[in-house]
Amino acid sequence: MNDPIAWGSLLLAVFAGAIRSGTPIAFAAMGETLSERSVKE
């Protein structure tokens, strides 16, 4: 695996997987932030 194209595709696959698995957590964090900011005291 000394081919630079192979390393690039592996890196791209890792980043794509991280974004794909991190999206639900990001949506939950944004929803929590909006709900906390919408509470009037």
Brief digest:
With 41 residues, the protein is mainly alpha-helical.
Overview features:
41 residues, 1 helix, mainly alpha
Note down, in words, how this protein is organized:
By secondary structure, the protein is mainly α. It has one domain (1-41). Helix content is 85%, strand content 0%.
Strand content: under 5%
Shape: rod-shaped
Largest sheet: none
Question: Uncertain spans, ≥5 residues at pLDDT below 50?
Answer: none
The number of domains: 1
Calculate Rg over CA atoms.
Answer: 18 Å
Contiguous helical run count: 1
**What is the first-to-last residue Cα distance?**
59 Å
- Secondary-structure-based class equals mainly alpha
Q: How do the SSEs run, as a string of H and E?
A: H
Mean pLDDT: 90
How are the secondary structure elements laid out?
Elements: H1 4-38
